[in-house]
Amino acid sequence: MKKTMIISAALLGVTFAAGAQTVSDALRYSENNYLGTARSIGLGNAVTALGGDLGTVGINPAGSAVSKFWQIEFTPALSISASDAKYNPNPSASSNYTSSTDNSTRFTFPNFGMNMYFPTGQRSGLKGVSFGFIFNSTNNFQERFTGHGQNGSTSYLGYLATAADGYKESDLQGADYASSIPWDVLVGYRSGMIAGYGTTDGKYIGTTEKQYSDGSIMVASNLNQRYAVSSHGQKYDPVLNLGFNISDIFYFGFNLGLTTFDYQTKSTITETAVDPASFEVNFQKGTAYFSDASYRNRYSAYGDGVYGKFGFIVLPTDNLRIGAAIQTPTSIHMVEKYHYYGETNFTDSGYDSWARSDDGRYEYRLITPYSANVGLAYTFPKGFISADYEMTDYSTMKFKEDDDYDVEGTFDRVNDDIRDYTGMTHEVRMGGEFMPMSDIAFRAGYGFRSSAERYYDALGDKKSPDAYTHTVSFGLGYSSPGSFFMDFACQALFRSKQYYYPYPDYINDVKSPEIKLNSQLWTFAMTFGWRF
Fold this sequence. Notes:
Elements (H helix, E strand, L loop, with lengths): L8 H9 L5 H8 L7 H5 L28 E18 L9 E22 L6 E15 L2 E9 L4 H9 L4 H6 L8 H8 L3 E3 L7 E3 L2 E3 L5 E3 L3 E24 L3 E24 L6 E4 L2 E29 L5 E8 L3 E16 L6 E4 L3 E8 L3 E10 L2 E11 L4 E4 L10 H10 L2 E14 L2 E11 L4 E2 L5 E2 L4 E12 L4 E11 L3 E3 L13 E18 L1
Helix pairs in contact: 4-6
């Protein structure tokens, strides 16, 4: 028996007009996965106590004052995402998963900038002031995966039919996209994926479904399902930096950060009849047999905001360095754009149908969390080792209405979810450099971060999942006798396991498909720079 899906029209009007913001959205745009220069990448970005390189400035603003040179650097890179998606069409009945791999390659630009150092000529006290404009990437949204399997229990078209229950057919025919009816339901109806049936207006059946003599509605036969997602985009932190060198012992700095990002994703679910003869559909003008249906959602988000960051580095001994920094929350102005497209095909193309929604747009604000990091480094004649710790409290994230969309309480529910289902993350980064010769350096780094997500156990206690993001990196550096230097780095980012559900459960005691995703992001970066 299908579940009854009761959602108030008022709530639907809010969530679909607003793009249905979720906890996952807040995390996606708030998290940092630092890149920067090839040197900082090669060191695993364990650079809070180091400085001297433009890739360090976004992590600790005091880093700009360590190097007593003017510097210009730029870093092109190649990013390769790889995924292994395991698809289970009915987790309630089987533990069997179908595995598939996918990948994508993109050119990126994780760093460029310039830093200027002005000595004061004093032997002690304020010995120098640095000014810089640095552009570092703090996240890469690139990901691509595909899950597929054969399903005879549920269907995306069946879910749409359940979601449409209660809406009059005349409304689905005539409503515009500014109405309270969910856009996926409107597109599903208008593209022939669902249809009204029976004597009661407001009851629907999916084109992949069949009504039996006992009144039950079930998927007519086996379907080949395919769910694919392709995402890309970058988050950058351009910063205006000011740093101070006090007696070559204490360095402190300030960043005026301008977070900016773009994120674009396309998701597609396709259902194909294994045997079209099993999917008979009766139309007023005749009978046809369902062949396949495809539903696509395109979504993009753009954001920009301002924050402040303060940091210091102190050298208590010749070999020991200590650094720390704190970053304020960021108020990001967000713009979302989205649309939906659906098409249904039959063995007789005369019955084919398609529909496309209007282009949706919504603006709001996201308040990202504060963060703090500390670092230690120990230097020796031919190199150093370094370690960082960073903490971020994601439970402080919050969605807010933009000034032009002042609707009281719009985000209360998702903000409550943020407080309930997120928490503090703990990140450890480690790195080291060895210089066998004065012009050659070998580097390596490793880091891991705990999950920001939380869940409640059977006793109602809030718990942190055993899920971690890991990074492994290595690098090479070359410094010429003149001003030119060049660095290379490779970083592998191993994301924690993710779970995707192409559509919600809609039949009692029968689960909709589940995808277990393991994915990695590989970055190969080359920095070219000049000191003078």
